[in-house]
């Protein structure tokens, strides 16, 4: 298959691109600065020239707090950019996989959210990602919507790298303890996305590593896995003011994976252990 991957240079895009190539697929990487999903005419040229069999759409505006003051830019990328991609996939009759977020849910219930539960995003980022979902469903017949959360990979900036850096600089780190979710390791997620795009099991999915934790619990495990001694001080969200409100409980049900024969991802503790081992090994070379 020939697969166009938007956001191909990002932390998830890097692993997805590698996984596709390992399986013998031809990859069309599409990323900034030359691959702007907001540039419809350029996108149209690429589709016409390359004629992909499918698209894995990972490109997004993900600066959650900054999005509150840059809502127009965020919407241009997450809503309009996704609409551009979805429209062209529909025109060419090809399959589209779109990654969304747990932030489309309100997070005010202590439950695992099902794919069809009511959406109630609390911030601009979540609202625009939901608008992207709606564009995909409105325009496409052959689509996968995959909601993910707390993503970390070896090729980008993320919570794990931030905690590792702070753990070397400080004796104590304050981390919120009233936001619960599930970390997602890109090296585990990438093969699953490849399995999906190779199939015709269209629909909405949730895909994170197994297990749940708060950010403070995640941070404590990062210290342990990295051999760092910094103490994690649990605090409330009110004690750590941020521009964007986050859901307090945004764990995602994997029922849709089970029903369609897709394997669940490993436990997040196992994923974190492998991540820190890989990072350490890279630092040695």
What is the strand arrangement across the widest sheet? 2-1-3-4-5-10
Quickly give the structural class: alpha/beta
CATH architecture of the domain at 2-157 and 184-210 and 251-266: 3-Layer(aba) Sandwich
- Label the overall shape: globular
Report the order of strands and helices.
EHEHEHEHEEHEEEHEEEHEHEH
Give the mean pLDDT.
Answer: 95
The major sheet is characterized as: 6 strands, parallel
The first-level CATH class name of the domain at 2-157 and 184-210 and 251-266? Alpha Beta
Radius of gyration: 19 Å
How far apart the termini lie comes to 34 Å
- Tell me the name of the CATH homologous superfamily of the domain at 2-157 and 184-210 and 251-266: NAD(P)-binding Rossmann-like Domain
Tally of helical segments? 9
Enter the CATH topology name of the domain at 2-157 and 184-210 and 251-266.
Rossmann fold
Strand content: 15-25%
Low-confidence stretches: none
Beta-strand segment tally: 14
Helix content: 40-55%
What would you say about this model in short?
The chain has helices spanning 11-22, 40-50, 71-92, 124-139, 159-169, 186-197, 215-226, 255-259, 268-284; strands at 2-6, 26-30, 54-57, 95-101, 143-148, 151-152, 172-176, 180-181, 184-185, 203-206, 209-210, 213-214, 231-235, 265-267.
Descriptive overview:
The protein has 285 residues and is α/β, with parallel strands linked by helices. It has a domain of 199 residues: 3-Layer(aba) Sandwich (Rossmann fold). The protein is built from 9 helices and 14 strands. The longest helix has 22 residues. The model has no long low-confidence stretch (mean pLDDT 95).
